[in-house]
Amino acid sequence: MVGKLILVQARADSTAGSFVLDTGAPDLVLNPTYFRGYTPIEASDENQMSVVGQGGAVQKITIQTLALGSFKYANAEASLVNLSAIENLRGVKILGLLGLALFKDCEVIIDYSKRLIYLHYINKKEAKTYAHPMLAQPDRYDAYSFDIRESRMVLSTAIADKKLNFVIDCAAENNLIDSRLPDRVMDSISISGRVVITGAGTNSIEAFSGTLAQLSVGTQQLKNLPIIVTNLEKTCFGTLQCADGVLGYDFLARSVVAFNFVKQKIYIFK
Amino acid sequence: MIGIADQRGFKNTLWVALLLFAAVVHAQVPHVGGKLSIRANSMQVSIYNQAGVPAMEAFIVKANLAGLGLHQWVQQKRYDSLLAGGWTVLENANGVFTVTKPLAASEKASSEADRIVFSALPSQNNWQTMGGNRIAYGANYFVNQLPYAVGSDGVVAFFLRGYKNAKAVQLAGSFTNWQQQAFQMTRAANGWIAKVKLPPGPHYYKYLINDRWITDPDNGLDVPDGEGNVNSVFYVPNATFKLKGFDTAKSVYLAASFNIYAASQLPLQRQGNHWQTSLYVAEGTYQYYFWVDGAKVTTNADGQMQNMQASFGKPHRFVLNGFSRAKNVVLSGNFNDWNAAQLRMQKTAKGWEINYVLGPGNYQYKFIVDGQWIVDPQGGPPVGDGMGNQNSFLVIGHNYTFTLAGYPSAKSVMVAGDFNDWNPNISPMKKVDGKWIGQVFLARGKHRYKFIVDGKWILDPANKLWEENEHQSGNSIIWKE
């Protein structure tokens, strides 16, 4: 890990190195610094459905092979996006992002304490039955259902009886909540201090950090979540209605977290 | 009945009065120095003046509000700093001073990279930039156990918790040429142990368990090697900072020029009659002070002054020959923010000199002879600072040579990048054997640069790695190991 980003070693054609495991990205993203010379397959005018907003045209290429451990993807389509801002902030060479679509038929278990990732392809026969042995004891974890909307993992929650949608993003280094929510939601957060957030470009903005007393997910209650309160006005979620916040590292990395993208379940170990 | 009612009414009135009095007393003597809240998309900071200066200071430091100008407002009724920072000052009442500021949205993000960098984590832990050189200090940070003990002989006791079923565990790192000379670890009660003698500084390592590499699960500091791998890092300390007294203090922090005087980053622990922390600090000269329960402290509890400057490493001798009639000669440079009084040189038989510790880096300096700023007559060719001034230029510990082939008729070739603050006048290249070469110091990690040929900025034609910049003209990239 670098900062709170999960780095995975992978190889795209002949170029091997670190990729960010990123459930916040819709698909495979490659850094053009290391992938020049490919012929663009299309100049897409479609909005890039990025969590951060609507980008411009995105150049796409096809790579012959993406190798991730024993996983191999043939003729993988990738978006070329300049990732130098991450490199410069974290001081690490980033070849690309491994986005959600790569794992749509998978179970992914992340053991943050042992720095291990277990990846399993779920075939159609085992779609309803498969579970890693680590998930054999339901009393060891809490399970939550999520939706996938426009290639985003969305968790329906409530704070102070206000219904809120949070995007689950394992590449988000902080949990975030929109400061424009009603005061009764803000009153559920014990504010502890001021922080400075690195924003788009060279922009930095002030925000407050604190602890959210309780987040309701269905009948379950998540208590004492570290969270950053910031204005998410310009960080809408593609063509989705703006989400109310993001659940990232501080939500997922308590010990072990598992995603079953076929059942659309997330398991957070106690 | 009436009398009883009156009596009850009197009692109720008395209780209400007592409760109000208690509430007023509570409001007048709050236990904490302030409170933070959010109202209508605005940050709101309330300072409780009557909690006392120590409580107020502690709150300001703990809440990361230092530097906003809250002290000046509460204590001196000056709020120009707050206004300049975009804060609105609300009317203060009952000793509660409140300021508010709308929470601004970030610039409109346009890519996945913008989403990921939207983070409150500081950039590249433990690194900061000064004069184009990255100055490192290292504070170990372990999550499930104390940092490894380091003996007075420099022996570090590495300990990997758990893995009882492993057949063999090895410790491999920068100090073992990685796997080639890896140490076999010994099975201990709750894990695996290896003792290794190491010099002060950062040491990169991993554990090799049954031929599988892992970073240290208890070490909170991971560092990329620039080649796609991530390693744990352990800092063997070379510096101990102590503060005597203050035995009833609840928290003591070190703030130094190497961590940009961050107020609550480097805690000291209580040991005997003093507070102490041990760190690795890279070569150089630094200023420092302490924060004790939120108050800035530059003396011991008995009032004895501390020497608030510390140097690590071998000094560089700056020499100025002649000027025997001068009364006062000072060394000044970007390494001390061009301070014109701090580094007074000593008179010698031949002229003037001073020893000053500088870490590897690219520096500019001048001498000040009785108030007159001059370049070093014995130094290399002076360089422009881009603002019409000429300074002497000094590279300590150069470790990288830029090369540009061709351009035989060019009159001037320079290299500029993040290592010299993109100054096009600092780092000249020389023509040697038909090529232009320039030597600089580069810290480990990624660097962006360009060549400037007779005033025209160009990418390095021999380097296929480049990235887009804000001018849409690109920057060449190198990763220094």
Please report the total strand number of chain A as a whole number.
Answer: 22
Number of domains of chain A: 2
Question: Percent of residues of chain B in helical segments?
Answer: 10-25%
Major sheet size, sense and barrel closure of chain B: 6 strands, antiparallel
Tell me the CATH topology of the largest domain in chain A: Cathepsin D, subunit A, domain 1
Shape of chain B: globular
Mean of pLDDT of chain B: 83
Could you tell me the number of beta strands of chain B? 40
Largest sheet of chain A: 8 strands, mixed
Distance between the termini of chain A: 21 Å
Q: Helix/strand-derived class of chain B?
A: mainly beta
CATH class membership of the largest domain in chain B: Mainly Beta
Helix content estimate of chain A:
under 10%
CATH superfamily heading of the largest domain in chain B: Immunoglobulins
Could you please say which CATH topology of the largest domain in chain B applies here?
Answer: Immunoglobulin-like
Describe this structure as you would to a colleague.
- The complex is a heterodimer of chains A (about 270) and B (about 475).
- In chain A, about 5% of the residues lie in helices and about 50% in strands.
- Chain A is mainly beta.
- Chain A folds into two domains: about 5-105, Cathepsin D, subunit A, domain 1 (Beta Barrel), CATH 2.40.70.10; about 135-270, Cathepsin D, subunit A, domain 1 (Beta Barrel), CATH 2.40.70.10.
- An eight-stranded mixed beta sheet of chain A has the order 13-14-15-20-16-19-18-17.
- Chain A starts with 6 loop residues before the first strand and ends with a strand.
- The model of chain A is unreliable at about 45-55 (pLDDT under 50).
- Chain B has five domains: about 35-100, no CATH class; about 135-235, Immunoglobulins (Immunoglobulin-like, Sandwich), CATH 2.60.40; about 250-310, no CATH class; about 315-375, Immunoglobulins (Immunoglobulin-like); about 400-480, Immunoglobulins (Immunoglobulin-like, Sandwich), CATH 2.60.40.
- In chain B, strands 8, 9, 12, 13, 14 and 15 form a six-stranded antiparallel beta sheet that branches. In chain B, strands 25, 26, 29, 30, 31 and 32 form a six-stranded antiparallel beta sheet that branches.
- In chain B, a hairpin with a 3-residue loop joins strand 27 and strand 28 (about 350-355).
- The longest helix of chain B is centred in the first third of the chain and has 27 residues, at about 1-30.
- Chain B is globular.
- In chain B, about 35% of the residues are buried.
- The interface between A and B is large, with 84 and 58 residues.
